[in-house]
Amino acid sequence: MGKLKRLMLLLVGLMLLVSPVGCSTNQDKAPEKPTVVNVSYATRPINVPSIAALEKKTFEEEFAQEGITIKWVELEGPATTEALAAKSIDIATSLNYVTGLVTKSNGNDIKFISKFSSFPKAIGLVAGTESGISELADLKGKKIALQKNTMLHEMLLKALAKANLKAEDVEIESLASPEAANAVMQKQVDAAIIPDPLLTSALASKKVTLITTAEGLIPGETFIAARTEFVQKYPEVVKKFLELHQQTLTWVSANQEEALNLAAKFNKLDIKIVQALYPKYDFGIKMDESTITNLKQSAELLKQNQMIKDEVDTTALVNNLVDSRYLPQ
């Protein structure tokens, strides 16, 4: 019994040496942090918060204190979702909701972690002055330029439905917004759907007329999106990013004149144009039930028009896409 007792005491001693009492547990460890966070931005239409963030360098300075480098990458449209899929960016600060829905339905695992902007009044369907288009019903048989698989595409679908027309009743020319604006002014297409400041510039040329804005047709929203894997691995980083974004919005509100001057300089626009356009934009970050409802309605419309596959459950799609847990309280 003596040997057995000594052996048992030895085993107990060894267990104490490796037990949680004598060392740190996983719960005691500091949260894992990335060394670099790659963030995309767009300066159009008039993304004042993004421009302010770039100029003030608050994100770089605050994250540097934690040993994290913030790298900004300018991207728009499909290039943004491609970069998210390729993991070359972690967070996209201005992703339009239609692009997000389509890319999510195609297997690109992303989350909407915050609203970024809403600007339906700053999107317009314009027609060439010699196109013969003066109302939505006149679009039948016409060639319309816009960037496909974006909110501009959804706006056209809604506008056509309002005039009892279908997508098959028009010819869609898929072009990036600057090219679409140029195409309609050069009479290469009959009409185009474009955002500001391109919209204001096109109207000022007198070569096009405004048929309708997006107001009453679509919410015209963009979101801050992130790779799901990144969100799950670095939740504290995501929370801090959104806190800094809210701080940037607060700074813009308190220093509007300086912020708009920065935007004018950055986008090489006359300050009077920026001052006129800015009231068309809402940069609130809140995501509520109306956000969910709008996204579900959009997803169903996209599904009906074969932009989202028939087998996709749009309700589940949206519920999995929107994640408001990281918003500042």
Automatic annotation (TrEMBL):
Q: Which residues form the signal peptide?
A: 1-24
| GO molecular function terms listed in the Swiss-Prot or TrEMBL record | ATPase-coupled transmembrane transporter activity
Protein name (database record): Aliphatic sulfonates family ABC transporter, periplasmic ligand-binding protein
Organism of this sequence: Syntrophobotulus glycolicus (strain DSM 8271 / FlGlyR)
- Carries keyword rRNA processing? no
What keywords sit in the KW lines? Answer: Signal, Transport
The record's listing under Pfam families reads: NMT1 (PF09084)
Q: What is its main location?
A: periplasm
> To which protein family does this belong?
Belongs to the bacterial solute-binding protein SsuA/TauA family.
InterPro entries in the record: ABC_SsuA_sub-bd (IPR010067), Solute-binding_3/MltF_N (IPR001638), SsuA/THI5 (IPR015168)
Supply one GO CC term from the record: membrane
Give the location in the cell: Periplasm
Keyword Signal found = yes
Q: Which residues form the Solute-binding protein family 3/N-terminal domain?
A: 36-259
